[in-house]
């Protein structure tokens, strides 16, 4: 897959979140704070978001890396690294 720029990747992540949690107020989401807590995303929805991102981007996230996805910035940074590899 072609490498996406940061803004496009952020939009893709937001779209994946909204596909699972359409009521989520992503505009008020601080990029450096835990996004699952802020949006009240439970573990099932979190996994659905990761599945959606895998379909969109072709990047699977092993459970051992979930800690790197705590913030929106962390999630985007993680995906950037994986897409660049």
From TrEMBL:
It comes from the Bacteria. Residues 7-83 form the Carrier domain. Pfam families: PP-binding (PF00550). Gene3D superfamilies: ACP-like. This is Acyl carrier protein. The lineage of its organism: Bacteria, Pseudomonadati, Pseudomonadota, Gammaproteobacteria, Oceanospirillales.
């Amino acid at each position: 897959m072609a490498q996406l720029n940061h803004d496009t990747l952020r939009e893709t992540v937001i779209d994946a979140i909204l596909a699972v949690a359409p009521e989520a107020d992503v505009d008020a989401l601080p990029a450096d704070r835990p996004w699952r807590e802020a949006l009240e995303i439970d573990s099932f929805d979190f996994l659905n978001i990761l599945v959606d991102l895998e379909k969109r981007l072709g990047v699977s996230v092993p459970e051992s890396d979930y800690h790197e996805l705590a913030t929106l910035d962390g999630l985007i940074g993680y995906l950037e690294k994986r897409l660049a590899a």
